[in-house]
Write a sequence for this structure.
């Protein structure tokens, strides 16, 4: 009985990952092993992203996923496959899903992207609820990294830093923050204070509750420079693939026309920062 393949993952300070694969099918003469990343929801005919696996001194096979490897934003399932050089793919066994091993992601904690313009790429491996290895990828042209959140009885104050632009201090001069209501074209705008690439803004819960129509309403937070594209406020630069169930913040009661309500920040399934207004619990 073959050993189910699994992979340990090691991150480096640049945000790159090395997969250390053990177990799985053995390559025969003329075959090569590949790490295969398949994006969820993609066309079944999509071959995904394929990385060569190379023998390491410890007997495992290693594959390197650098930040230079194009990986669109989304969730990617990680497999191992064998391919025969010069032969049709249809003649090969399909990719085998990898089990998660030990992740050393310490280098991702409080990671600082390279200065200057250019997209901010983040990749975080994680175990799925079914016990398989997957990878969460983010790719933002400009990125507003959320830091500390200050929550009091009436408002949430967001501290953060702008990345992915050539001159963040110039981009933040005259910037504003916007709370955009999902499903309806409503926007609440607040001023931003800045110090270099660092920014701060305060959003009054009451302003979001004034037009509350009952049920749950979600306001997505954006940082809008005076020039250039808006950046979604999110917390991406660490080793947490899914913040939503882990980072839970208190909701505060607000006065609303449709009855008792409460408002508070939360991280979405994509680690973006939003504020939810809903009936008071």
């Amino acid at each position: 009985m073959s050993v189910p393949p699994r992979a340990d993952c090691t991150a480096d300070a640049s945000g790159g990952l090395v997969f250390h694969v053990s177990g799985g099918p053995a390559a025969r003469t003329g075959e090569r092993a590949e790490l295969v990343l398949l994006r969820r929801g993609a066309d079944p005919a999509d071959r995904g992203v394929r990385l060569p696996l190379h023998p390491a001194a410890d007997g495992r096979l290693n594959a390197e996923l650098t930040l230079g490897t194009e990986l669109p934003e989304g969730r990617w399932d990680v497999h191992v496959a064998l391919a025969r050089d010069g032969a049709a793919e249809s003649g090969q066994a399909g990719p085998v899903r990898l089990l998660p091993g030990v992740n050393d992601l310490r280098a991702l904690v409080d990671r600082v992207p390279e200065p200057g313009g250019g997209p901010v790429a983040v990749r975080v491996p994680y175990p799925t609820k079914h016990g398989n290895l997957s990878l969460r990828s983010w790719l933002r042209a400009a990125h507003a990294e959320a830091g500390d959140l200050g929550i009091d009885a009436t408002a949430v104050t967001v501290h953060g830093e702008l990345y992915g632009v050539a001159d963040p201090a110039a981009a933040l001069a005259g910037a504003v923050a916007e709370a955009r209501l999902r499903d309806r074209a409503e926007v609440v705008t607040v001023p931003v204070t800045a110090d270099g690439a660092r920014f701060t803004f305060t959003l009054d819960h009451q302003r979001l509750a004034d037009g509350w129509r009952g049920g749950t309403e979600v306001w997505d937070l954006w940082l809008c420079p005076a020039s250039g594209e808006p950046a979604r406020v999110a917390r991406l630069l660490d080793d947490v693939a899914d913040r939503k169930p882990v980072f839970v913040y208190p909701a505060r009661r607000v006065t609303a026309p449709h009855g008792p309500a409460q408002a508070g920040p939360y991280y979405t399934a994509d680690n973006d920062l939003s504020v939810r207004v809903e009936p008071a619990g």
Q: What stands out?
A: The longest helix spans residues 168-172. Residues 116 and 167 are 7 Å apart (CA to CA). Confidence is low (pLDDT under 50) at residues 87-91.
